[in-house]
Amino acid sequence: MSELKHKLLSATYKLGAPTWRIYPRTIQFDTMNTCNLDCAYCNVKEGGAYKQPRGEMTPETFHKTLERLHPYRRLVEWIAPFMNGEPLLDKRFTYWCNQLQKHPYRGVVDSNGTLPDKAWKLLHPFLHVIRISLSAHTPELYKEIHGADKFDDVLHTLTILKENVEPHQTLFINHMVCKQNEDNLDEFIKKFRNYTIQVFPLHSSPLQQNSINNLSTLNEPYRVIDGKVWQRMWANLRKPCQCWDMLGIGLNGELMHCVDYPAEYNYGNIHSTKIIDAWRQRNVQGPYHPLCLSCSLNRAQVSNKVGLKEAET
User: Fold this and answer.
1) What pLDDT is attached to residue 88?
2) Residue 287: domain span
3) Angle at 41 between CA 35 and CA 43, to 5 degrees
4) pTM given for the model
5) What is the number of structural domains in the chain?
6) What does 147-214 look like in DSSP terms, one character per residue?
7) CA 213 to CA 271: how far, in whole Å?
8) What is the pLDDT of residue 48?
9) Which residue, among 157, 29, 6, has the nearest Cα to 77 in the 3D structure?
10) pLDDT at position 301, please?
């Protein structure tokens, strides 16, 4: 039944009747916002543009979210048990996945891959999509961008995952293009040609000072599969950007306008507000929210269509 649900949701989305117009397609938790890197372009690190205090989501907030989701479990497809930190630093990560596995959702996780001794946790059966963030192809460039000498650890993690992923799981490398690495994109693709690479442009608005300082000239995301470059196209179904079908749940239960902005921009709290009510408020204001109007990702993606097409090279 769960597999049928996901096939139906995917089909509806592609046919032009996406369920996110009614309810978020993806829920992303800020279960813990501690990180072991100091990436140049990060806006949520301590002392950065958002100056967020480090902390953890309580189990009460986590389970309250699942309770609020339950009436709409047939519309929600993806759950991401992370947001602004490195998920493998959270000792409760496997617990979260175990709890989520009891529900009809698919899991997606982003990790920086610097903890190879914990890489096996990313192979939890709840997780269908595993993404490793890597924006450099050499140790020297890695240290410049990510702020630590962890390049070999990431390579180790990638090897472990590639050799052990289950048939239902997909492994990606997420590559964020910024000023420091935009001239090395061809070298990066050549080095990691045996992986599927998702290339994303760094995006910014006036709040994202670290991103503004590191913007590259690239403004179109694309994917590299088996050495071929495919331009990534987002849904042109009144969806302003790649995150518009996603709702972020902040550290303290905030129902966030966007997962890439401070939790103070929200539509209430999970403990006192229904998700459907917050979602309606968000969609009423839509892409005309001041943060969206100023976001470079919104401006770049607003005219794109659904799917993948081979890019000219």
Assistant:
1) 97
2) 2-310
3) 65
4) 0.91
5) 1
6) SSS-HHHHHHHHHHHHHH--TT-EEEEEEEE-TTTGGGHHHHHHHTTTSEEEEEE----TT-HHHHHT
7) 37
8) 67
9) 6
10) 52
Please report the beta strands in 85-140, taking only residues with DSSP state E, as ranges in sequence order. 106-111, 127-133
CATH classification of the domain holding 287 = 3.20.20.70
User: Which run of H or of E encompasses 10?
Assistant: helix 2-14
pLDDT reported for residue 306: 42
Instruction: Tokens for 169, please give them.
Output: 């799981």
Residue 67, number of CB atoms within 10 A of its CB:
10
Encode pLDDT of 139-188 as tens digits: 999 999 999 999 999 999 999 999 999 999 999 999 999 999 999 999 99
User: Contact at 8 Å (CB) between 85 and 106?
Assistant: no
Token pair belonging to 125: 């059966």
Q: Sheet holding 254-256: strands in order across?
A: 266-269, 254-256, 246-249, 26-29, 78-80, 106-111, 127-133, 170-177, 196-201, 222-225, 228-233, 307-310
pLDDT score recorded for residue 226: 75
Q: Which residues of the chain have pLDDT under 70?
A: 1, 46-48, 229-240, 298-313
Q: Which residue type does 229 have?
A: V
Q: Rounded to whole angstroms, how far apart are CA atoms 130 and 157?
A: 12
Place of tokens 């702020």: 147
